[in-house]
Amino acid sequence: QVQLVESGGGVAQAGGSLRLSCVASGRTLWTYPKGWFKQTPGKEREFVAAISRSGGSTSYADSVKGRFAISRDNAKDTIYLQMNSLKPEDTAVYYCATSTRMGEYYSYTLRAASDYDYWGQGTQVTVSS
pLDDT above 70 covers what percent of the chain? Predict the structure, then answer.
């Protein structure tokens, strides 16, 4: 059974940093594009960042450009989200996701939640002002 497990969430002050990790198990997923999304109560899941299978291409929501960085370590089948200069509006549950729907040789990033078929359980990030 495929599992994506996030870690690294918590409470940070505005202007601070957090680093989220997401490790996959149960199936080899390092050949697929991956992403991070966030969700707050009553809202749709929202795109944050995405990374291609090789890590050579990345994509970010405008709200996090220049502050967040997505990366991956394919040897560990793990992706990361380095979150700097945090703002109270970054407060949300953050989910990692992997997409196998385009096939394992798909070389680009994916920004739509509907493109992803494997999801983690989420990790809470709270930024205090």
Answer: 100
What is the Cα–Cα distance from 74 to 28, expressed in whole angstroms? Answer: 10
Q: Residue 18: its pLDDT value, please? A: 98
Contacts of 94 (CB under 8 A, 6+ apart): 6, 9, 20, 36, 37, 38, 48, 81, 122, 123, 124, 125
- Is-contact 109 52, C-beta < 8 A? yes
103: CB partners within 8 A, 6+ apart: none
Q: Could you tell me if 33 and 47 are in contact, meaning their C-beta atoms sit under 8 angstroms apart?
A: no
Do 23 and 5 contact (CB within 8 A), yes or no?
Answer: yes
Place of tokens 């394992």: 104
